[in-house]
Design goal:
Blueprint: E1 4-10, E2 14-19, E3 27-30, E4 33-35, E5 61-63, E6 66-67, E7 70-71, H1 74-89, E8 96-101, H2 108-121, E9 126-130, H3 132-143, H4 148-152, E10 154-160, E11 165-171, E12 174-175, E13 181-183, H5 187-201, H6 209-219, H7 226-234, E14 245-248, E15 259-260, H8 263-266, H9 279-285, E16 300-303, H10 306-312, H11 327-336, H12 343-348, E17 350-353, H13 362-370, E18 382-384, H14 391-400, E19 410-411, H15 412-418, H16 420-424
Parallel strand pairs: 1-8, 8-9, 10-17, 17-18
Antiparallel strand pairs: 1-2, 2-3, 4-5, 6-7, 9-19, 10-11, 11-12, 11-13, 14-15, 14-16
Length: 429
């Protein structure tokens, strides 16, 4: 077998790719094709490290190969991978092994399409398929050798990704599929909700996917006291509003990317903390005047309660009309589906991963919501990864560097002889 192992975390939002055994991926790029207004055809976006001011993403059209967590356009994915392997990684697939991530609860038709891409279109010499959550568990267990997670080899991985949010129990690096719970909310849904709120209250930004995604990442946060923060967001007297923040839109001349007008004041919400002091006085000080109409000539948008109402849907999906449990209840249901011997350990080793866990104060809010739902004699401990976006890839890189990794892969000859379904039995139990 080949010694060249490519680790590919093929997410719905971002692709992370690099050589096995390294700490960080060589390339991180959006998993899509986009067409700027200045272009006549769809092109592959550059890696995030090269996404400089020269690229105008205003009103750029986007095509994605993965929708709602599933590969729906293999031809589009082939084009993106081809650019990745030839121009960015500069590898020869026929002499390389591939470690590829695949989300839980994937359907067989998607699995077959993925295998055809790997073996028939690119001709990789061997393939290893892994659940992202098991790789997160592996990486965190190696990073915390003395923790209960490492001693018991058991954890609950909460993966808030681009398409879905999963609560996945992991035991000895294998996901317990019968206990996996899912919320149909992720980074894409949050961005779409922010676009709707801003378009309704201010200016039409329904075509500004990249801009609103940037605004979401820079300005949104999780509220620790929703009622208090809603009242604070209404305060308009003397311009004293700790919630309000301004996002400046690109003008296409002096700057082609949006930015936060006052980054320091945008973090004033962090001073609110868990204290309820002053909440009553804030209610009394609320200005009862009419809401100002948006100035359509201004090249900026003001965000107030939109900043925390968008992530709030993760805890209250009913706000979007979804008949699904919130994040805390989803975790309890996943743990309750496991054996009673595992439950106290799972509550003590909850790991948050995925780009949507980067919202400030998410961990604190989850602890507050989870504690009343968990039996009193169980401890609750939530840990966050040092880099939730790269956590899965780092676990895959660690697995690829193990001495017996290549013996567990499926070779191209085995795939051609046995087919997709038989080969996959090796990976998922």
């Amino acid at each position: 077998m080949s010694n060249n192992i490519v680790v590919l975390d093929n997410g719905g939002g971002l692709i992370k790719a690099g050589q096995g055994g390294e700490r960080d991926p060589l390339v991180v790029l959006p998993n899509c094709l986009f067409k700027p207004l200045s272009s006549k055809k769809f092109i592959v976006p550059p890696p995030l490290s090269d996404l400089d001011v020269d690229i105008d993403l205003t009103s750029a059209a986007v095509r994605r190969p993965i929708d709602r967590g599933y590969l729906i356009n293999p031809d589009l994915q082939r084009d993106i991978w081809s650019h990745l392997f030839t121009s960015l990684l500069r590898i020869t697939p026929t002499s390389s092994s591939l470690l590829l991530t695949e989300p839980p609860l994937s359907i067989s038709s998607v699995q077959r399409a993925t295998d055809e891409l790997v073996f028939e279109d690119f001709g990789f010499s061997s393939l290893y398929l892994a659940n992202p959550q098991s790789l997160v568990h592996l990486y965190e267990a190696s990073r915390q050798p003395g923790s209960i997670l490492s001693r018991t080899q058991c954890s609950l991985v909460v993966d808030c990704g681009f398409s879905f949010t999963h609560a996945v129990p992991v035991l000895h690096n294998f996901t317990l599929d019968y206990a996996v719970k899912r919320i149909d909310l992720g980074g894409k849904a949050f961005t779409n909700y922010l676009k709707e709120l801003v378009s309704y209250r201010s200016i039409n930004v329904m075509d500004q996917t990249f801009l609103m995604d940037d605004a979401k990442e820079k300005l949104c946060f999780v509220s620790l006291d929703l009622h208090r923060d809603l009242n604070l967001a209404r305060e308009r007297r003397n311009g004293n509003n700790v919630i309000k923040s301004t996002y400046v839109l690109p003008d296409g001349v002096t700057h082609t990317k949006g930015y936060v007008k006052d980054p320091q004041s945008a973090n004033n919400f962090l001073t609110l903390g868990l204290s309820d002091e002053g909440a009553n006085s804030v209610v009394n000080k609320v200005d009862g005047g009419e809401r100002k109409k948006a100035d359509m000539n201004k090249n900026e948008i003001d965000l107030t309660n939109e900043r925390f109402l968008v992530p709030e849907t993760l805890f209250q999906p009913a706000d979007l009309g979804m008949n699904q449990a919130g994040l805390a209840e989803c975790i309890v249901r996943a743990v309750s589906s496991c054996h009673s011997y595992l439950q106290p350990v799972l509550y003590q080793s909850i790991i948050l991963t995925g780009g949507s866990t980067l919202f400030p104060q998410l961990k604190e809010r989850l602890e507050r919501e989870l504690r009343p739902l968990v039996p009193d004699h169980f401890d609750v401990k939530i840990t966050t990864q040092e880099d939730p976006i790269l956590g899965v890839w780092r676990g895959g890189s660690l697995l690829a560097s193990s001495p017996d990794f290549e013996s567990t892969c499926v070779t191209k000859a085995e795939y051609e002889e046995l087919g997709s379904a038989r080969c996959r039995r090796r990976f998922f139990h």
